[in-house]
Design brief:
- This protein is α+β, with helices and mostly antiparallel strands and 371 residues long.
- It has a five-stranded antiparallel β-sheet.
- Strand 3 and strand 4 form a beta hairpin.
- The longest helix is centred in the middle third of the chain and has 51 residues.
- It is elongated, with a radius of gyration of 34 Å.
- The structure holds adenosine-5'-diphosphate.
- Adenosine-5'-diphosphate binds next to helix 8 and helix 10.
């Protein structure tokens, strides 16, 4: 063995097919605390821990034999003192003096091992922090809802006149209180939904849902808001009746969210419409508006939680919401096996599309007759 090989900055061991060690360099002897005489002529098992011996028999040696070489095999070597040294091994089968040898170089992995431990530790901490955040969010959302319900309930009582007539000014104040309650309730619901989606706790109950029925219900709920905002409803173009596989309440939530956004971001005089198309075994439901639009770079961000963008000089934050609506829509659609996507042109409008699976027809879903 050349001097260079003896003291190279990596260990070297060569063994024959029966496992007998034929060569070892000084670096390996130093790494493992053996003398040359203690290893040459001995089986490679001598420098392997029990688990490593099985690994050698069942994986490392067969792989070397089949491939004639192995790269970056991660294993542990055992020192004379009985401790383990993690190493990375590269090996190659070569013929010398008419015999086959398995020549392997090994590099210590102590540093990398420490880095990996640190990374795992950091990941564990991040996961714990995320779980704690989700728990905190859902607890807070529950606790915030209760007093809010009491505020809204009492304001409703005042509004109804049950506790005495209100002056015009008092009536306006009560309306303002109820408005703020509604906004706050929506925010809390969003937070709660988001927290539950994050913790994988949201359950969706998939069943065949009438598409046109879902769209018409959502439209009925936003009609008043559209009139107030002086927007036209183009049409509902859902053609013939389609049944989709969805959780009826969650589909309603997504449609309402997309329609409310369309209303928020379309100036008076604009138009909002809904259309449905069938592609293969999927239905695409598109909510289209002629609003301010979203720029290309912003389109890739709006589905991320807590993202609001300022389009067309309009500050979204001033229109309410906390940037959770679309993140929730997308997660809910995915939980139903579907997707929500968006296309947009600044100044011309946006199209948000929900994709869901067509419900199997009754014939298909009926179990096959037995016998
Ligand atoms: P928020 O409830 O705060 O509006 P969303 O997640 O629903 O949050 O939407 C994120 C952002 O995407 C909005 O703040 C807005 O900037 C943009 N956006 C969503 N829908 C539309 C739309 N129809 N037209 C223009 N911008 C939109």
């Amino acid at each position: 063995m050349s001097d260079l090989m003896k003291t190279a900055p990596c260990g070297f061991v060569s063994f024959s097919d029966d496992g007998t060690m034929d060569e070892v360099n000084d670096t390996l002897l130093e790494m493992l605390g053996f003398t040359r005489i203690e290893l040459l002529g001995w089986h490679i098992d001598r420098i392997l821990p029990p688990g490593g011996r099985i690994f050698y028999q069942t994986y490392l040696f067969p792989l070397l034999k089949v491939q004639s070489s192995v790269e970056e095999i991660y294993l542990a070597l055992r020192t004379s003192g009985g401790t383990d040294v993690p190493v990375l091994l590269n090996g190659r089968r070569q013929e010398r003096r008419g015999r086959i040898f398995n020549d392997c170089v090994v590099v210590r992995m102590t540093q990398r091992h420490a880095f990996e431990d640190q990374l795992l530790q950091a990941r564990r901490l991040a996961e714990e922090a995320s779980a704690a955040k989700t728990k905190f969010l859902s607890m807070m959302s529950h606790d915030l809802r209760t007093p809010l319900a009491a505020i809204d309930g009492n304001a409703q009582l005042l509004e109804s006149g049950a506790v005495g007539d209100l002056s015009q000014q008092q009536r306006e104040s009560v309306e303002a209180i109820r408005d703020a309650c509604r906004t706050q309730m929506t925010l809390i619901s969003d937070l709660l939904d988001f927290a539950q989606l994050q913790s994988g706790k949201i359950q969706v109950q998939l069943a065949p849902v009438s598409l046109i029925g879902a769209v018409e219900r959502a439209h009925a709920l936003v009609k008043g808001l559209m009139d107030e905002s002086m927007l036209r409803f183009g049409s509902i173009d859902c053609g013939e009746e389609h049944m989709v596989m969805a959780d009826a309440n969650r589909l309603q939530q997504i449609l309402l969210n997309l329609l409310t956004n369309a209303i928020k971001f379309t100036p008076a005089g604009g138009e909002i419409s809904v259309e449905c198309r069938v592609r293969d075994d999927h239905v695409l439901i598109s909510v289209r508006d002629t609003g301010i639009g979203i720029s290309e770079p912003d389109l890739s961000r709006i589905f991320s939680p807590f993202v609001q963008v300022d389009s067309g000089g309009q500050r979204s934050a001033s229109l309410g919401g906390v940037g959770l609506g679309l993140a929730i829509c997308r997660e809910l659609a995915r939980a139903m096996g579907g997707e929500v996507t968006a296309r947009s042109t600044v100044g011309a409008g946006s199209v948000f599309t929900i994709e869901l699976a067509v419900a199997p027809s009754q014939e298909e879903s009926r179990p096959a007759a037995v016998g």
